[in-house]
Specification:
The chain is mainly beta and 394 residues long. The protein contains 3 helices and 20 strands. Helix 2 packs antiparallel against helix 3. The protein is elongated.
């Protein structure tokens, strides 16, 4: 392991070890969260050691908690006992075996499997005057010393706990399809023919920081003139907690002074680049969950919603093209208007090159088992695993 993340309790009795802090959601499966807790039995005073993994929605800062109210709601939480070691101890993962070699005989492994319906780590960008932790969805692994795993009447002192924030993230799929297309025809007052606008994207998925190419076709069958074209990208943030609310924020917009005369056609490709750096002053903008001292970007599109009921923050994007048609005649501006066309766009981060996830290893193991029943088992197994690693997208 190139790096190990460690957090020790205030009294030094327990220490939490993780091999990584980013866990990948592959839509149909989520990487296992595994780690080790180092326990010094001498400091327990007869108590037990537990570990929990929690997905929570924070909808208020800590400094607002002045009357004992909690501004944090657990969406999902699971607890396991690690010491004394339960009789039905789960087998260690390769990561845990490496960590156990590092921490010695006092190491107690733990494993969590997150369900598929949990949201990814997303934060809402605070305003300039806000303080405390940002609102949003976060994941926390916490080890603590207690008599019972979950007793609301038991007071757990801060010195008896240690925790690490982790992230649940999604990467863009390897297969990028052709982009969406949309068109609209609009007829104006005092005209008997419409303005036809069609827009399309080159591809379905764009990476953060890459220019989005928008192809615009205009067929102006009227006697009016198209005087400008605006291309924008909007972020749609659905906050699903007690109720479902959707907020829209423009993250990129650019106007182009292209004109299209009466009874003429026009076609051109425009490029826009949505960046967090250009939206630092927008309070409530959704950004990817960040760890301490790490940069982040605009929140990635949430994949795989389907029919699953998710809670937390769900993010999507759309490209909007606004074509402004000039007015004229005795009625002036009353005969002019805008023609608006929208298409969805997926904005995500690419999977880091060479990254092999736990999910990939699990798939490789299944491939090995399928091939092990055939002749020349050893040769076919090695070949299957090698081929799979070359083709694996996650």
């Amino acid at each position: 392991m190139a790096k190990v993340f460690k957090k020790t309790s205030g009294n030094g009795t327990i220490a939490l070890y993780l091999g990584k802090r980013d866990f990948v959601d592959c839509v149909d499966s989520v990487e296992v969260v595994d780690g080790v807790v180092k326990v010094d039995p001498a400091g327990l005073n007869g108590k037990k050691v537990f570990v929990y993994l929690a997905c929570a929605f924070r909808y208020g800062s800590d400094d607002l908690d002045v009357i004992g109210l909690s501004f944090r709601r657990d969406i999902w939480i699971k607890r396991v006992q690690v010491y004394p070691v339960p009789a039905a101890k789960a087998p260690s993962t390769p990561l845990q075996e490496s960590l156990l070699k590092k921490v010695g005989d006092q190491g107690c492994p733990f494993t969590f499997q997150m369900p598929l319906n949990l949201p990814c780590s997303v934060s809402l960008q605070p305003g300039s005057g806000d303080s405390g932790k940002a609102c949003g969805v976060d994941f926390e692994v916490k080890a603590y010393i207690a008599d019972e795993a979950d007793n609301p009447d038991e007071v757990i002192e801060k010195k008896n706990t240690c925790r690490l924030i982790i992230r649940k993230i999604q990467f863009a799929p390897a297969n990028n399809k052709a982009g969406p297309k949309a068109e609209i025809s609009k007829q104006f007052m005092m005209t008997d023919k419409p303005v036809n606008v069609e827009i399309s994207l080159e591809k379905e998925i764009y990476y953060h920081g890459d220019p989005i190419s928008v192809n615009v076709k205009i067929n102006n069958e009227t006697t009016k003139t198209v005087k400008k074209i605006k291309v924008s990208v909007e972020q749609l943030t659905s906050v699903v907690l007690y109720s479902s609310d959707t907020y829209s924020k423009e993250v990129c917009a650019q106007e182009f002074g292209e004109t299209v005369g009466a009874n003429s056609t026009f076609e051109k490709s425009f490029q826009v680049v949505p960046l967090l750096a250009d939206n630092k002053d927008k309070r409530g903008l959704a950004v990817d969950g960040r760890l301490k001292d790490e940069d982040t970007n605009l929140a990635s599109t949430t994949l795989g919603q389907g029919e699953r009921e998710l809670q937390g923050i769900l993010v999507s994007y759309k490209v909007k093209v606004t074509v402004t048609v000039s007015g004229g005649g005795m009625l002036g501006g009353l005969t002019g208007s805008d023609v608006v066309v929208e298409v969805p766009v997926t904005l995500m981060s690419p999977k880091p090159a060479g990254q092999m996830s736990t999910w990939s290893l699990q798939r490789a193991e299944k491939e090995t088992l399928r091939n092990s029943t055939t002749k020349n088992t050893k040769f076919r197994t090695v070949t299957a695993v090698f081929t799979f690693f070359q083709k694996c997208s996650f």
